[in-house]
Write a structure and sequence with these properties.
89 residues; 38% helix; mainly alpha
Length: 89
Amino acid sequence: MASHRITIRIPETLEQRLRSRSRIKGQTESDLVREALENYLGHSSKERSAYELAREAGLIGSVKRAPKDLSSNRRHFEGFGEPSSERKR
């Protein structure tokens, strides 16, 4: 696929955020801008896993005051997947 170059002007604060995100994610600024445009326009060139989508949406680690071993301790799994009327109390 041929690529085309465009030039845009952005506020300094947006430029700082773009540079910071570029360093954090280890991607070029151009890659991040392309990804943002693909997401905005609804045509992503790559499929993302549910984990990636949840992470991007800020849903990973968003539960407050939950036990630290919530995902690994079997006692927290008791009744998981059962209708609430059938759960053991």
